[in-house]
Amino acid sequence: SAGDPEGERKRLIDDYEDTFANPYRAASLGYLDDVIQPRETRAKLTKALGALLEKEEIRPARKHGNIPL
Question: Which end of the chain has a smaller Cβ tally under 10 Å, C or N?
Fold first, then answer.
């Protein structure tokens, strides 16, 4: 409303925050894999990093060796 610009500004900010400023919106759009609670952070990080420790990268054999120059 033109009579209360500060109230309109607050309403627009609240509407924006409800729509975009939350992790659930980003997750629904596929920008995040998961939304976790702060108390779950350590366990999730430990599990993810543990999976990387056991990862083996399989590389194809080289087709050509290095030639002496």
Answer: C
